[in-house]
Amino acid sequence: MAKRVLHIVSNVAHYDDPSHPTGLWLSELTHAWDVFEAHGYEQHIVSPKGGVSPLEPRALKWPLLDASAKAWLDDPARMALLSSTARPDEIAPADYDAIYFTGGHAVMWDFPDDEGLQRITRAIWEQGGIVSSVCHGYCGLLNTRLSDGRLLVAGRRITGFSWTEEVLAGVARKMPYNAQEQMKRRGALYAKALLPFVSHVVADGRLVTGQNPFSARATAERVAALL
């Protein structure tokens, strides 16, 4: 049977201020999807509420809109996958070999405390599967606890969008929290690349994380190597 990967996307369309739109950083999904598709894996998409996953407008402009993301935008069938995502309660974790949390600032609001996503993540991890994230996707791992009550990230090496990158992107003041600092407070061993906005992946056993949007492909390749 083909390996199966579950992608997690956000339902949030804006920051606290509704005049500032956000959403899924499309290439963080498409780059990973391309890698997994090349390996023949079966892939599905879920979001906290199901249904539509809005797109981050900044990711749809040149030069950030690359061939991979543009191919999705130009493909009605693939865009339909982002308008009808599954809900967590419709997912059987036993069916999946890996989970992959995409990013975009949107996820900072709906990923951390979603019990459905935590249930799926815990089950995949405890059945020997791979848990992965890219960029802000690691916010989905902040509060996931294992069956023994321990935080999944405690004592594990991890990366994700850094506070330095938030500042350089000009959005630090709009953030609901400092994700990098919150990871450290939970006992995660956070690490980042020497330079911002370069591809950087950290693998701690079956936990695979990428630092920023430019790390999505390399993160997926690391996941594929483990699978």
Task: Describe the overall structure.
- This protein is α/β, with parallel strands linked by helices and 227 residues long.
- It has one domain (4-226): Class I glutamine amidotransferase (GATase) domain (Rossmann fold).
- The protein contains 8 helices and 8 strands, in the order E-H-E-H-H-E-H-H-E-E-H-H-E-E-E-H.
- It has helices spanning 26-38, 67-73, 76-81, 107-110, 115-126, 163-168, 179-185, 216-226, and strands at 4-8, 42-46, 98-101, 130-134, 157-158, 189-190, 201-204, 207-210.
- A 6-stranded mixed beta sheet has the order 2-1-3-4-8-7, sandwiched between helices. It has a two-stranded parallel sheet with strand order 5-6.
- Helix 1 packs parallel to helix 8.
- It is globular, with a radius of gyration of 16 Å.
Q: CATH superfamily membership, which one?
A: Class I glutamine amidotransferase (GATase) domain
Main beta-sheet annotation? 6 strands, mixed
SS summary, helix count: 8
Shape call = globular
Poorly predicted ranges: none
Number of domains: 1
The helix/strand order is EHEHHEHHEEHHEEEH
- Structural category is alpha/beta
What is the first-to-last residue Cα distance?
13 Å
Q: In the CATH hierarchy, what is the architecture at level 2?
A: 3-Layer(aba) Sandwich
Mean pLDDT: 97
Fill in the keyword field for this structure:
227 residues, alpha/beta, Rossmann fold, two-stranded parallel ribbon
